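Q: Hi! First time doing this. I have a protein sequence and I read that you can turn it into a structure. Is that right? Here it is:
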Amino acid sequence: YNDNMEYMNERGITIFLNTDLEIITNRLQHDRQKRPLIHGLNRDEIRAYVMAHFKQRESFYQLAQQIIVPE
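A: Yes, that's right. Below is the predicted 3D structure, encoded as structure tokens:
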């Protein structure tokens, strides 16, 4: 946030792995017991959580020097 991406871009290489949000949701669902922020959430709630946070952060992610969309 703030000027973090600008700072990182000036000092190194930044990469955004633009992974499908469904893949992220699936990964988190299987590992939620180890993640306090989503520990008690069901799949739909995890998906909503992921989407909300992505929307907040996407403009910062797009400032990365490299954007890679995994297959």
